[in-house]
Amino acid sequence: MVVILLGPPGVGKGTQAVLLAESMGWAHVSTGDLLRAARREGTQLGQEAQAYMDRGELVPDSLILAMVKEHLASLPQEQGVLLDGFPRTVPQAEALAQMLPEVDREVDRVVLFLAPDEVLVKRISGRRSCPNCGAVYNVYFNPPQMEGRCDRCGDVELAHRADDAEGTVRRRLEVYRELTEPLIRYYEGMETPMSRIDADRDVDLIQRELRSAFA
Prior knowledge:
The protein has about 220 residues and is an alpha/beta fold. It has helices spanning about 15-25, 30-40, 45-55, 60-75, 90-100, 115-125, 165-180, 180-190, 205-210, and strands spanning about 1-5, 25-30, 80-85, 105-115, 125-130, 135-140, 195-200. It has one domain: P-loop containing nucleotide triphosphate hydrolases (Rossmann fold), CATH 3.40.50. The protein starts with a strand and ends with a helix.
């Protein structure tokens, strides 16, 4: 089984994918993780990807697809797969559909996570992290006891990533709508089973609903 997880930045796809993969014994396939592993291990695909990045260019879809194919081919055929972060565009989805039969698989279901933009903006722009111990806070949902300071490390000032700034987050949501939302129409047109899940709830509630989609 191959399941594609869709949803905007900050909606919690990664968190839910990890929990589901652990409970079902499935493989959680994140293209970001695959790319980092290939570069770290110095594989041929990793070296090719590094060359693009060294030139300040985006890694092309064909190379990302080759990494996904290589990884899927290494998994037991009976093991389910959660694709997190790929495909992001309709051309990527079309290329994936052509590739999957080569590893004797197909897309069985799409799960779409939904949450209001304002919730997503607060989730991302509110994040603060401790550069010393790595603890993560959110000024809206899980603030530190002392504003701007880590609870664990006392006087260590929390960091706010530049790409978590509110304006940047809103632009990321615009890009998602422009590039990724057409995927919803694509898979609807392919009559792929699709589950829509309200992600503005407790993590455990979302996970229970997610698992029920495969019961």
